Amino acid sequence: MMAIVKQIRRLTLFETLLLLALLLLAAFMSLPIVFIINHAFKPFHELFLFPPTFLVKDPTLTNFYELFMRPVARIVPFSRYLYNSIIVAALSMVAVILSSCMAAYVLSKLQFSLKKAVMAMIMLALMFAPETVAIPRYLIVGWLQLNNTYFGHILPVIASPVAVFLIKQFIDQIPAELLEAAKMDGASELRIFIRIIIPLSMPAIATISIITFQGVWGDASASTLFMQDETMKTLPYYITTLTSGMANTVAGQGMAAAAGLLMFLPNLIIFLFAQRRIMETMVHSGVK
């Protein structure tokens, strides 16, 4: 603590003002997080106060109790939707990272005849919005008979042009001499990929992990389009049912506030973890 105080005393007037401005900006940017946390613990009458309150006055766990104990048609519990979301998000992250890293390594360091054509298709795919491929995805999932399966959730997100592009751009920075030296020592392509490419690409992998998790964790389209069995649907779909319809528009607001916090916290945790990992890898990886 004394070291921090001494360091602050050494700051110039401009540096002090800049530090204060950044602290104020950080406090302002954290207001939505404070609101989400407080909103989830508001009792029913505080949710509809006018003017609305920013901080909760009488915190309660009623919203979480109702969220956990309210099944759909008294059949599917909340824990089933949460379990499905965790499984789908985890498997999707692993699948996207593996497929994107392998594709990026091939496109970056190996030579083959259709390399430029494949890169052109990937760049073209970056211009398409997800809504434009919803019908082809539905037809492919139905043709493969993947409805009401976990693979039906995962398959549409495995091919990620953004992930391949970002990781390829990072792998391009790895010196070719390093790979040639490994090959001279007898390393195979698989060993080079696992022992060199993956560790040095961790900043890009961490970034892709954030993007993939956020996209899959908050996506309800797969549950809506591909899953007819209620037990195979995920948490985002369940949240949309809390406030849908005339009967639940008001009554489900407390549960929706609690569910919103549960949806937000994993994103915040994985973002903070990945950010720290990015900084550590950039320091120790040796990639310039």
UniProtKB/TrEMBL annotation:
It holds the Pfam family BPD_transp_1. Residues 82-274 form the ABC transmembrane type-1 domain. GO terms for biological process: transmembrane transport. Belongs to the binding-protein-dependent transport system permease family. The chain crosses the membrane at residues 12-37, 81-107, 119-144, 150-171, 192-217, 254-274. It is found in: Cell membrane. PANTHER family: ABC TRANSPORTER PERMEASE PROTEIN MG189-RELATED-RELATED, BINDING-PROTEIN-DEPENDENT TRANSPORT SYSTEMS INNER MEMBRANE COMPONENT. This is ABC transporter permease. GO terms for cellular component: plasma membrane. It comes from the Bacteria. CDD domains: TM_PBP2 (cd06261).
